[in-house]
UniProtKB/TrEMBL annotation, chains A, B, C, D:
Domain of life: Bacteria
Name assigned to this protein: Class II glutamine amidotransferase
Domain Glutamine amidotransferase type-2, first and last residues per copy: 2-266
SUPFAM superfamilies: N-terminal nucleophile aminohydrolases (Ntn hydrolases) (SSF56235)
InterPro entries per record: EgtC-like, Gamma-glu_amide_hydrolase, GATase_2_dom, Ntn_hydrolases_N
Organism, scientific name: Paractinoplanes rhizophilus
PANTHER family: GLUTAMINE AMIDOTRANSFERASE DUG3-RELATED
Length: 276, 276, 276, 276
């Protein structure tokens, strides 16, 4: 299992979210409070969209524990972005290597995952065969998470993200059934095209890993009128996190079981997620 | 491209071959004389069969340049074996990671490769689909070399190594033809089951990477009566190398183009290699 | 802080102690129960004395978390030794790098440490100046633990280990006093010359990290007559550990506060440790 | 030995110099043409001054070969700076670890070095003792290059860089003489405070490693009126390099033996370097 966060809003230094908050993502690499594993020391990654004239988002991925990654600490101190995805990894069996670190990238898209496909070793071949042959050469690592990403791309992630991820989940469950694997899918997923952020919470058994999103800024400022950081952020700033950061009362809403959310300009969306 | 060696004979410290000779394998990681690339700094690996009661050979694989691998240097100093395979890697495009380092292992078998499948990215899916579904979950990395190994296993490596590797080569060429890829295969391969060592030299274009085997010990001792190292080795001791070590006159014979050899108890074999 | 173990006795595979027991040392790298930190993911090392004709013990040191070190797992499976020292690291501020991993080695000696010199950054220069100029070039890393080792060597570790370590501890406390640092030293130390094993437990404040040694084999066999592993081990086999392995009732004795112990042929020793 | 470059001028993507030119610095990591070693695969680093409101420059340092560092490639693609120092390392004996990678940083200062102090192991203690005790705790690695930096800081680098480096060189030679070491110092050094760049070329034996600086932009544009890249750069843009990049005729001037140069607003400086 793993931990991740997605940020969308007023450009800030990565530092502000990766290192500074109490229970920051990097803290969680050593001491997660809500994760299935308390240690997430098998790699770290962050993807961001600055400068915005670049055709693909930038990616930094390290294979050591996040808490000791000196390069990430430097990078976070000088990199400002209005949209980024960060992830810390606890391997569920696949090797610790850069190509297995999240986020995964394809074109403008980034993807990160907390959870697992159970008995992935047995299902892997059938799942990989279903990946669009044009996309197949881009699969670089060996995780279930990356295969899920390429299946979602195959099923139309770039055109209709909700439907594509629902089809991916449905397909994984169908293949698992054929192999006699019960309750195969456990996932929270964060995905972005550099414009909107999608978050998904689902598990075959109906007991998904935790996922939260941040309260509207206006409401949060009313609760905490003295917090300077909050004043500088736009109304539309949002965070989606595996595990709440900091201790701000009223700051976090849990994403319901079997749901999806979209962070975007204008009203955000929240709705039911149903594997197809 | 890469460099490798296989040793079979009187048990010696790995050190004796990996570090001590002039032009040793580890030297070649920085200064290969005969390789297509002069630098082979993208990983190193060694597999050996001691203690012999272990069900599978031992494996050490490092992702940094061989010349600076402190753990390998230590290991080589204290590990004695009568059969081992060592390899230094120069990536032809796939990531530098432990799962891409040779030798690859399956059960009692070890496999290492110098060369490439051209346009492997395009051919990879079709090649992987042909791997026996029972073997598929064991594919851990992303190299052409490992896919060749699992294809050979699929085609019967454990029963009839020559025929299995010939079928693998033929299959790679057939898939390449279907994709319009000319001269797809370039390889020297070393493989062993812990008892015999097979070596293969082949390329679709008929210009294969160099491969040599060592002269019979009796002949070599006659040429160099004063060399102490040679006295301690049994008649049956043999080396197969991508590139000759040391400068011993008369020590090395080139494996002919499109050939295979077997190092084994009793007479060794040398014959023609024909993709099927 | 860190965790370590020392084994002396009938040669066994490293595996038997590093991986197989419940609460094994490698388990402790992710989930220590008694350590100040629960995670010890900043490196791992093991030193051993086979083959015995080597002038110096062999050393393997990895910078990643022990739980994911594939090479160590392989090594432990095939390496048999009657004397070894193993260590997992949780950095107290110095960089994660191979030269900072324990055990440290000088000639026939190995040294590992759990604890810290408080305010080491401030004291480091004065401590390093006291290292014998002939030994100084061998200091390779930047930890307090290694400086303690070289100070002990300077003060005669090779001739009178107890006295040398007592002088080292006394000297650290004296330098700390001069800098106004209170309660400077916290340590359990394991040291060996390949023949005997010394263990030390001491802290300036009198609240030292845990340290235990194993019960005499005869007594242990009487308690657990059905345990096969125990039958194969000689009377003189002993373990010294930061944290008990397994759950064997009656297997472990705590080393008292401010004490030292010696595991050796004939009677072991246990006595008071007094910084000089 | 190593290779390095310093850039000062119109902000550009690091990419433009680290990867794009023929014979780029990253190319030189595998195939240096002018270096004493042709391979510089023991680490890579880059330091830069963006965003400019940060108290210290940003630093990225990797321990693997530069040619395979995926994170550096990403970083170079999205990082724009008007002043940066980059370095590729070929170890002369000290360990391959992040704390031994250049550039070294202290406050606003960055420092990188190509060359060596001969018999550094023997001289290291005396050299380290001369480092200002207040600076001593910041020495993190074990190279001669870093010790040279801290000696220069001790001798006043921040106030009078030329004089401080001359005193450092003089001091190294004096200590070497006392130890009977002939021709101890070999160096090209690049140093910057984020405003000006100093470059030094010196060796005790008068045969220093190569060092070049770029021709004035006006002259270069006159020679190559059709080169687009050149048009976007200010008059004051300068490069200092261990080894010329690209093949632009008339682009490079060698720094004379025993000289220093300063790249700064207004006229640059070039003068004699004399150890004191």
């Amino acid at each position: 299992m793993c931990r991740w966060l997605a940020y969308s809003g007023t450009p800030i230094l990565l530092d502000e979210l990766l290192y500074k908050p109490r229970y920051s993502l990097i803290d969680q690499s050593m001491h997660s409070r809500l994760g299935v594993e308390t240690t997430n020391g098998d790699g770290v990654g962050v993807g961001w969209y600055e400068p915005s004239d670049q055709p693909v988002p930038a990616l930094f991925r390290g294979t050591g524990p996040a808490w000791g990654d000196v390069n990430l600490r430097e990078l976070a101190r000088v990199t400002r972005s209005g949209l980024f995805l960060a992830h810390i990894r606890a391997s569920t069996g696949t090797p610790v290597q850069q190509t297995n670190c999240h986020p995964f990238r394809y074109g403008r898209w980034l993807w990160c995952h907390n959870g697992a496909i159970h008995d992935f070793r047995e299902l892997r071949r059938d799942l990989m065969l279903a990946i669009d042959p044009d996309l197949f050469p881009s699969v670089a690592g060996s995780t279930d998470s990356e295969v899920m990403f390429y299946l979602a791309l195959t099923f139309g992630l770039r055109d209709d993200p909700l439907r594509a991820v629902e089809r991916m989940a449905g397909f994984v469950e169908q293949v698992a059934r054929a192999h006699g694997v019960a309750s195969p899918l456990q996932m929270t997923v964060g995905a972005t095209d550099g414009d909107r952020v999608w978050a998904f919470r689902y598990s075959s058994e109906g007991k998904s890993r935790t996922l939260s999103f941040s309260t509207a800024l206006t409401a949060l400022r009313a609760l905490h009128p003295d917090m300077e950081l909050l004043r500088g952020l736009s109304e539309e700033t949002r965070l989606v996190v595996s595990e709440p950061l900091g201790e701000l009362a009223g700051a976090w809403n849990e994403v319901p079981e079997s749901s999806y959310g979209v962070v975007q300009k204008g009203d955000d969306e929240l709705g039911a997620f149903t594997p197809r």
